[in-house]
Amino acid sequence: MAELQYDLIQSELSEPFIVSQESITHFETYGYVKLKNVLSPQLLEHYGAVITDLVFKLNKLTKPMEERTTYERAFLQVMNLWRESEEAKEFVFSKKLARIANDLLQVKGVRLYHDQALYKESSGGITPWHADQFYWPLSSPKTVTGWIPLQETLMEMGPLAFAEKSHHVEIGRDLEISDESEALMNESLKQFSLNETPFELGEVSFHAGWLFHRAGANVSGRPRKVMTMIYMDKDQQIVQPRNEYQQADWETWLLSRPVGGPADSELNPVLFQY
């Protein structure tokens, strides 16, 4: 890539994206928002190649699809790519994306919880209903996941689907991603409207930590490539882990920082603040 073009792509990662009051209100009310034209095709092509190379290099899930659990069939999952590559770090540390998260949460600043690539293979199964914050030993609901498709994501690829307003209730908050969570929440979430629509190239969604969401199977014959970053209020506090997954997260992503103290380990840098 020509140096000038690369410089332009890098600068795009810091350019402000103005989040409208309408979008902030939608996020507060429904628990998510989808924003069009956040990232250019050129940027997604460049960093998409970087992220894809890392996923294939670092992925450890190699058993045949028919031998996998429902969770394992949902996607290949690789965490904290920012620690593996300077170019991946440029993307993950994007001030543009962190500022959007900050403005939606309406806080003074946001830290990184962790990043993760989620690649749903060409024959990948559903991602069952779940709420992300079940896995996080964090005190406040001021958390948000940025879901960034690296290609146009049509319905047959399994785009993210949201149970609107489900972050306002406490049903199902003790469920891990599983067949059980899918069956139970399919019934429990009938009271909520479902938003399940394709993603245009450059469109990004942000959803609250306690919002229930799922994704369909990928029947497109092509991989569905997605990068995510999880942001939290920079003043987020750590709570005593309530399950084995939170215990693992506390040790892995928060480096066992003291319970009751700030989530401010070296893995949780402030990415944007006013």
UniProtKB/TrEMBL annotation:
The protein's required cofactors: Fe(2+)
InterPro entries the UniProt entry points to: Phytyl_CoA_dOase-like
Pfam families, sorted: PhyH
PANTHER family given in the database record: ECTOINE DIOXYGENASE, PHYTANOYL-COA DIOXYGENASE DOMAIN CONTAINING 1
The name this protein goes by in its record: Phytanoyl-CoA dioxygenase
Species name: Dyadobacter linearis
